[in-house]
Amino acid sequence: MSFLAPLFLFGALAVALPIVFHLIRRTSKEKIPFSSLMFLQPTPPRVTRRNRLEHIFLLLLRGLVLCLLALGFARPFFQKPITTNPQSEIGKKIILLIDTSASMRREGLWPAALSKAEEVLNKTSPADQTAVFTFDRQVHTLFSFEQWASIGMADRASLAANRLAEVRPTWSSTHLGNALIATAEAFADADKQGQNIGPRRIVLISDLQEGARLDGLQGYDWPRGIEVLVETIKAKRPTNAGLQWVVDADEASRPDAEVGPRIRVSN
What kind and span of H or E run contains 162? Predict the structure, then answer.
């Protein structure tokens, strides 16, 4: 048994008060009828201390009431261990969204992102459903919910990590807003197929570089119940320069055109 407010148990010490008051109570001796007092000198009545308990049953009842009051204020409860059945446990639906844009090519960022992704995959429970997406300008499905469900529980995390280890960052820009919208809509598609099994979470692994475009989120009504957990990967030596590959639409439509690369540099 445990108590929410154990300090109230000290109130049970008040059970001694009726006993103490009973023992120290002083009473005068009984009055004895007498004929005439005119020849006697008045004296104050003699009192005696009662050293013997009387009405023991009533005294016990009063003490029991005080003990019950103290016990009630202490709010006792019994701790009962809860056994969970892994088969009936409601898991989470998780999408691991990993940035593969050009900024992740900086020194140490991609190995750190792979390590963080493997850590997230290893923490998933058998009841969870997990998918792995990568993004730069577009979103790519690397490991779907169906693939996760079709693999044994012991091999899911390792196979997803091995599939992710084969990926390398591209030279494309970062469209983070569009990636988040596409990931949220992937949850909606899975829900339509009856795969909504519990809480939904997006784990974003990115360096959150300044050029990541978030304009796609403007005016988008984010679905309820989708949590976004951001795992930021930081570079050892931060920079303030950026490159953007500029392609002319007219020149890109002519495959025979010999056009050199054009780069926009921002600093």
Answer: helix 156-165
Q: Over the Cα atoms of the chain, what is R_g? A: 40
**Residue 262's beta-bridge partner residues?**
246
CA–CA distances in Å: residue 41 to residues 28, 34, 36, 37, 130: 18, 14, 12, 8, 104
Distance CA 75, CA 69 (A): 10
* 57: enclosing H helix or E strand: helix 56-74
CA distance linking residue 5 with residue 9, whole number of Å: 8
Report the distance separating Cα 200 and Cα 186, nearest Å. Answer: 11
| Owner of token pair 């056994």 | 83
Going across the sheet that includes 139-143, the strands are: 139-143, 129-135, 93-99, 200-206, 226-232
Name the 3-class secondary structure at 133: strand
Contact yes or no for 180/97 (Cβ under 8 A): yes
For every one of its 267 residues, what pLDDT tens digit does the chain have, with 9 covering 90 and above? 777 887 877 877 777 776 777 666 655 556 777 777 777 777 776 655 555 666 778 778 888 888 888 888 888 877 777 655 544 456 788 999 999 998 898 888 999 999 999 999 999 888 888 999 999 989 999 998 888 888 888 888 899 999 999 999 998 888 999 999 999 988 887 766 655 557 889 999 999 887 788 888 888 888 888 899 999 988 877 677 776 777 665 655 566 556 677 887 877
Report the C-alpha gap between 149 and 59 in whole angstroms: 70
Separation CA 211–CA 9 (nearest Å): 62
Please calculate the CA angle 180-182-185 and round it to the nearest 5 degrees: 110
